[in-house]
Inverse folding.
């Protein structure tokens, strides 16, 4: 058996089989994640590794009353192999559950609805993509990873609920190196490959690479007018997502957006941030079988609107869940674009810093939503709307209440699609749609 359709059928088949062996009162929750992906790794403008990955992992939660135990098994999609493995896992989970205390926050869907969502993308074959990538950079030193194919997620339980989500995506994450640590980084990702869109990103990388050959400048610590590209905005959003949008972190006052709760602090009125499941490539259900709405508005008009609520938090605080994972971080972030023309950001910046990426971020003052981190690739000094020189590495230390608040001058009128390129253990389905941001002053400390 192969292909997403056969995996969906196989999930139904094997969970139906496992259900027949349950004891009275037992409930089984099964969550499947899988992929059929092609990978091409480049280094020094040569293909260093090319191959395909096919994997299906099944996580099980075996419940009896308020006690439960969890485990996982890899599926071969062969009943003669998988059924003994799954049977042994269930036996192990029964032993573990017998020694486990009752879980006061256990909550799972008992009246869930079935669903099926499948989307097919359009992208070149691995061979076509490889040739296109090599030809597009004209012999420059390219390092990167191209990954493409199907990812799929399924949920099934012993109560008869069945949910399925499949998407086809591509993700090319690369850097072009000039020498030593001089490099420019970029990414092209989505569901529909466009040669024109890809080439425009490559052209921008090549333009930056040419500037990197100029003598870099050192800036003294201080505040600088700054344009943050969408990839840099992603890093800031990732920090906000670390407790910023979850119900539990808000109720325990451990959120970096604490000042919004205690001091009525706000972002700029143009800031609107949502969990946009309908517009992303993450499944519209989660591991306990609860459905996710197409959109959860987190920030609107610069103010808090809603939070992500996992089933455990729903049980603890006696509120409805909106299908968030237990970490209560968004998996499909969208920030509404503004009115700043994306093709005119250098003119709008006039004189200041263009920051393409931020790195190694951490909170310097979590309660104030203050973050520190480094520039690395694609940071340039702009004078009179023209890039004039690369800028040596800087450390910033600033709060989102400035960057997205009183120092925000505008957001670009276009938002970039960014898919998380992580492949550790499997391709992720986290995604972002983010504009760039022009900031009147961003604080750099060294």
């Amino acid at each position: 058996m192969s292909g997403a359709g056969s995996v969906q059928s196989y999930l139904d088949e094997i969970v139906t089989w496992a259900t027949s062996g349950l004891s009275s009162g037992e409930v089984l929750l099964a969550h499947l994640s899988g992929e059929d992906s092609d990978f091409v790794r480049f280094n020094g403008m040569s293909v260093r590794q090319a191959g395909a990955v096919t994997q299906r992992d099944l996580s099980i939660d075996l419940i009896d009353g308020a006690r439960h135990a969890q485990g996982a098994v890899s599926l071969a999609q062969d009943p003669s192999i998988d059924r003994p493995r799954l049977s042994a896992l269930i036996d192990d989970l029964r032993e573990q559950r017998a020694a486990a205390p009752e879980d006061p926050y256990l909550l799972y869907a008992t009246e869930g609805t079935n669903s099926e969502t499948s989307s097919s993308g359009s992208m070149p074959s691995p061979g076509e993509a490889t040739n296109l990538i090599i030809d597009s950079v004209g012999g420059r030193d390219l390092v990167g990873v191209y990954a493409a194919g199907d990812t799929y997620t399924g949920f099934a339980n012993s109560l008869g609920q069945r949910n399925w989500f499949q998407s086809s995506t591509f993700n090319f994450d690369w850097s072009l190196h000039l020498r030593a640590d001089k490099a420019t980084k970029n990414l092209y990702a989505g569901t529909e490959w466009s040669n024109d869109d890809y080439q425009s990103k490559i052209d921008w990388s090549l333009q930056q690479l040419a500037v990197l050959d100029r003598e870099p400048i050192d800036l003294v610590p201080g505040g600088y007018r700054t344009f943050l590209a969408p990839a840099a905005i992603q890093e800031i959003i990732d920090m906000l997502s670390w407790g910023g949008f979850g119900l539990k972190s808000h109720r325990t006052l451990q959120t970096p957006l604490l000042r919004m709760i205690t001091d009525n602090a706000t972002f700029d009125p143009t800031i609107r941030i949502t969990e946009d499941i309908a517009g992303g490539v993450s499944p519209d259900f989660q591991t306990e079988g609860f459905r996710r709405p197409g959109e959860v508005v987190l920030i609107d008009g610069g103010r808090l609107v809603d939070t992500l609520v996992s089933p455990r938090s729903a049980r603890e605080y006696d509120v409805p869940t909106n299908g968030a994972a237990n970490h209560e971080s968004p998996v499909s972030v969208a920030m509404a674009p503004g009115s700043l023309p994306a093709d005119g950001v250098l003119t709008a910046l006039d004189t200041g810093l263009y920051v393409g990426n931020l790195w190694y971020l951490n909170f310097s003052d979590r309660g104030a939503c203050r973050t520190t981190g480094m520039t690395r690739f694609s940071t340039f000094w702009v004078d009179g709307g023209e890039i004039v020189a690369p800028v040596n590495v800087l450390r910033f230390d600033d709060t989102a209440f400035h960057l997205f608040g009183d120092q925000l001058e505008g957001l670009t009128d276009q938002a970039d699609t960014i898919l998380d390129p992580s492949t550790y253990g499997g391709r992720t389905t986290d995604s972002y749609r983010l504009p760039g941001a022009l900031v009147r002053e961003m604080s750099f400390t060294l």
